[in-house]
């Protein structure tokens, strides 16, 4: 039953992605190429890594908000989170296939396969998680740097309109 609900939710989401995603039918060859590309780019394992990051943040927040939770309780939270993820990873994969179908032609996908099978493509796949993590950290630092400047500018502009924050 949960699988059917997940499948229906995925179908509803696909329908909201826009008509252009369905304008050209996804044939078996293109689907297979996209699935191979997802494998080469480690999309599914990266999704699991992202889920683990979210889970770690959730556990930290729960520890802070609910200090009476034991390690066993937190293990239950983690197991439930991972189980739901595992039960629905097929839905995520289907959505990713349709996303690539929407944005890339069959020829584009074949060219991406050639690139990601190359030494440079494999290197990009290996370093992408670190690039994402480090670029996120840079973005946080940049936001902290700009935050006070933005706040000051907003206050000045609103003050010129008679509004005080």
From TrEMBL:
Domain DUF2059: 92-141
Signal peptide: 1-23
Entries under InterPro entries matching the protein: DUF2059 (IPR018637)
UniProt entry keywords in alphabetical sequence: Signal
Protein name, as recorded: DUF2059 domain-containing protein
